[in-house]
From TrEMBL:
Keyword Transferase on entry: yes
Any one Gene Ontology molecular-function term assigned to this protein's record: nucleic acid binding
Keyword Nucleus: no
Keywords: Methyltransferase, Transferase
TM regions (residue ranges): none
Annotated source species: Eumeta variegata (Bagworm moth)
Residues annotated as domain Tc1-like transposase DDE: 18-105
Protein's name in the database: Histone-lysine N-methyltransferase SETMAR
Amino acid sequence: MTSIQNRKTVNSEWYTTICLPEVFKEKSLQKSLKDRKNNRQRRIILHHDNASCHRSAETTRFLEGQKIELMDYPPYSPDLEPNEFYLFSSVKNKLRGQRFLRREEAVDAYKMHVSEIPRSEWKKCSRN
């Protein structure tokens, strides 16, 4: 996947012209619109947070034009908070102080630590 240059801001122009098209291509999601609309297995549903590049008019127009569905993300979502504040902070702590030469190395390290979290911890986090 395309990485953003060091110290560059993610804005809606980059998000709609570089990031999203590449994600769709990478995940082989560039199926015909008719096929996606009629086949629930092929629909694309994005879960955006409230970042400005996700909520901009440019991004909204782009996603509407691509027939992409958005899952709502309320300003305060207690259902998602355990993952954000417990599990992901746990992974962040494990990665703290490490240096990576390439973006892919950082992503691989993150994935490895997330995969090491026992299923029971995910369940406990969701229950709480």
